[in-house]
Amino acid sequence: MKNFMTTDELKEMFLYVSQQVIESEKFLTEIDKKIGDGDHGIIMSLGFKEVKNQLSAGNFYCANEVFKTIGMTLLDTMGGASGVLFGTIFISGIVGLEPVEHISLPEFAGIFERSLAALKKRGKANIGDKTMVDAFEPAVAALVEAADKGNSLIDGFESAQGRARAGMEYTRQCMARFGRAKSYGRASIGVEDAGAASIWIIFRAMAEWMRTHL
Amino acid sequence: MKNFMTTDELKEMFLYVSQQVIESEKFLTEIDKKIGDGDHGIIMSLGFKEVKNQLSAGNFYCANEVFKTIGMTLLDTMGGASGVLFGTIFISGIVGLEPVEHISLPEFAGIFERSLAALKKRGKANIGDKTMVDAFEPAVAALVEAADKGNSLIDGFESAQGRARAGMEYTRQCMARFGRAKSYGRASIGVEDAGAASIWIIFRAMAEWMRTHL
Amino acid sequence: MLNKIINSPDEIVKQMIEGYLCANSVLFDAVPNTNGIVLKEKKTKVAIVTGGGAGNEPWNIGYAGYGLADGVAIGHVYAAPPTRSIISVAKATNYEKGILFIANNYAGDVLNFELAAELLQMEGIKARCVFVSDDVASAPPENADERRGIAGIALVLKIAGAAADAGLDLDRVEQIAKKANRNIHTLSATTSPGYMPNTGEAMFRMDENTVEIGMGFNGEPGIFRMKFAGADKIVDVMMDYLLNDLRAEAGREVAVFVNGFGLTGMMELCIVNRRVGQILQEKGIVIHDMFIDMLFVPPGAGGFSISLLKLDDELKQYYDCPAYSPFFRKAGLRRPGVL
Amino acid sequence: MLNKIINSPDEIVKQMIEGYLCANSVLFDAVPNTNGIVLKEKKTKVAIVTGGGAGNEPWNIGYAGYGLADGVAIGHVYAAPPTRSIISVAKATNYEKGILFIANNYAGDVLNFELAAELLQMEGIKARCVFVSDDVASAPPENADERRGIAGIALVLKIAGAAADAGLDLDRVEQIAKKANRNIHTLSATTSPGYMPNTGEAMFRMDENTVEIGMGFNGEPGIFRMKFAGADKIVDVMMDYLLNDLRAEAGREVAVFVNGFGLTGMMELCIVNRRVGQILQEKGIVIHDMFIDMLFVPPGAGGFSISLLKLDDELKQYYDCPAYSPFFRKAGLRRPGVL
Ligand SMILES: Nc1ncnc2c1ncn2[C@@H]1O[C@H](COP(=O)(O)OP(=O)(O)O)[C@@H](O)[C@H]1O
Ligand SMILES: Nc1ncnc2c1ncn2[C@@H]1O[C@H](COP(=O)(O)OP(=O)(O)O)[C@@H](O)[C@H]1O
Ligand SMILES: [Mg+2]
Ligand SMILES: [Mg+2]
Ligand SMILES: [Mg+2]
Ligand SMILES: [Mg+2]
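Predict the joint structure of the above. Result:
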């Protein structure tokens, strides 16, 4: 098994991720309807449909370009709270980064670590506030830990997707403090957060792709 | 059994008639809803509520005044097609008539005969057009026949209410050619006409009052 | 059953008028002892008086205004106003130049407005009636004068109002109103039934997933039923029928009014309007003006109507004038944005 | 499930804009490559740009106009517009005097409009944001800046639009918009749930015979629930809460805006308005103006909102100006009937 990805492979992986998000439209919308406004699945799917178009159409000479294209496309097409936030997740991690042609676990960990910081700065949410941060922060921590330990790429992502999932499940017990869900107060307890679910779907899809293609 | 009514009795009878119409609101509205706009019961009831007020409040020295008060009140308060038409039924029969203090069958027959003519002139409907004419014309004919034969007041009205009822039932087989029901075309067949039902309710109430009070 | 936000079915028309006047006392007076309102301003011109049953607001309470009617007589829910009420409203206007009654062509309205006109004439007041019959679904072209009136009355009134404001006499205003009525053709699509404004009961039953074209607003059957299809498909079918009835050749100028029912939102109406515009453009019919509003609103019903008004220079001149009532506001076409 | 008169959920916003522009091409241009419109007229003045998720039309497509916003960025259904879209709309206005963004206080709108303002500032374009937070049910007075924005944005925009038209600079227009926002307090009553504009699904479930006070338009729980009661009872409860929050003493002047949801008709709104007027009169609060409209319309939902705007001389001066958009028309108060 390879322990890195070429820029082309990265693009292929994110095409697969896009497809998985698109197919989760109903699932995400159902969650968002319970304690939100029911648009999350729709705009995630709209955003990633366009990501698919942009990635398929483009030629990328480095990983940075792939991330940037995804981030800008999400920022430009999605709207909603999650448009900015998912845009941030893909863009902020590569700001100032030297072109990376072959991306391996340490780079992934570094990129997502920086974007986590940007996300928290922009959105002001912390763990326990029932947002995508609850899934993203532990997933990023898993990547960093795995990179520090010198684990393999695939191990890093398997662990990250598991932690994202646990984070998503953890949001069930939290009371929402951001976004529309906040209005539900204590009634938001018991339901997952839609943004956290999206994070898990993305990490799960990345791990899946790596498992079958590397 | 008396064979005439005093002006006071006439007023009492129409108070009873009003009450019967008011209590038929739902029944009439249901009919009008099937092939009309569902307002017939409501406006009949509104009109006759006000008739009750006006009759209770007034002192009448002749039958003409009672008829006129009822007719003007209906004309002023009901609206709809039936406001004008029921107004006509009570007003047009007494136009130019000498004051009548004691009213008996020939006067009733004469009044309603004239108002039938006015109604048909105004509304242009004839027997078979599925309107109140289908109930009113045979009821009036019954009064005229009974008066011609020298029958009693009560016999005249018993026969009139029976013919009004038969007329109302006959409307079931007719296709509407006037009013909103016209739009239903052949679909109006099978349903009674609301205005014809009102006519029957009025004649039935008159006969009932006479039977129990004269 | 729908909970209606009212206090009592018997009082709804009276309380509606009180609430409307509470917000608009600068413009209108109540007509004493009846359900009617009149403009405070009493210009010396032909007075336009309209009216009809309550229930499809803003028609008719919202049709009194500048460049519109001078007074409105409001009947009970779906019942034409009583003759007396029409007369009282008429007498509260400045009627020295005569009165033009404009109402919809329903038995009750015709009976009451005609009787009111007769009684006023007996008093020496000039009064005429025009009954709007724009609903192409309600009778074939050869019996066009038997057609019901629906959303088109908004434009007939607006044109007559402008003609009266322009100082034309009763004969001319009447002629122009009649021409506007002949030239305006409306067809509606109903996708779900409305609710009685006084009781909240469903007005009729309708199969889900059906669209009925030309249904009366109380559920009177239309000309045909189709399975629910996208907006464009519904509009295509309607425009076909409507254009066939209108007989507007390419190059002819028309005004278009897309009117929404209670349950159908502005988003849907814009999408409908888009297709109407495309079709007219394809046929080479010239769109002089196009507007989307909710002026004749069967409460709680899903659906809309399309009105096409064939214009000539005379009608255009009056059509282009601004009109203002708190519920019926249309800017003039000569200076956009100025009512 | 309600059949929505649309063509495809993915295309509704785009097609809505096309249909709106088809009717109103004299006034507006489409902003290329995004869902946005701008006024054709480019006055030299502070540019006002608004936007938000589609779905509650006429908000926000109908809020671009004279005396209103110069441009509107329209997001997908219930989703804030993308930052890029806001920037594109902003750049299509005449922004030389700076841009004031006015949006509602939802996470998505705040994130996107703030980011747009930051990015514009980086390009040297002056841009500020005001987020409207009028929904008194969504947070207690001590956290008033956390409140959601609902129908009140109509008046904040209208006031800011008039201030910009009057030639005030960006600082002053921003201050006035913020003051208007502080002074406007809205409370809503929901009697039945709305339907998703794109799918026709019921937005949430609600017990029949219940009224929920202060519910968010997507079904976010309100402050209390009551058994359905007559219009006056509902208004009494709402006005109590609202006046307590507003702290308007007797003699204070207010403007009143009664806004209807999709399923509730003008008749009901007039009856609601009647009671609002009675209560204000009883309390000695001076009604400077009162209007009934449907400007923020959760589609298919039953209910309404009441907005009270506390006025001072400065706000009144701008409040009184006319505003005109095809879907949001309010005559000026100085010459009734003139937009
Ligand atoms: N301040 C925030 N920080 C991080 N995530 C947030 C924040 N606000 C909202 N979110 C995330 O956004 C998701 C909602 O996104 P979406 O439904 O697309 O937007 P909207 O709330 O505008 O409808 C929530 O489930 C939550 O995970
Ligand atoms: N031209 C007419 N001549 C006689 N009766 C008529 C005529 N038009 C309507 N009607 C009667 O009026 C009744 C309907 O009255 P109503 O429901 O009160 O008025 P509307 O049709 O205006 O709603 C019909 O049932 C019919 O009996
Ligand atoms: Mg959402
Ligand atoms: Mg009827
Ligand atoms: Mg009727
Ligand atoms: Mg949203």
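The domain at 9-183 of chain C is CATH 3.40.50.10440 (Rossmann fold).
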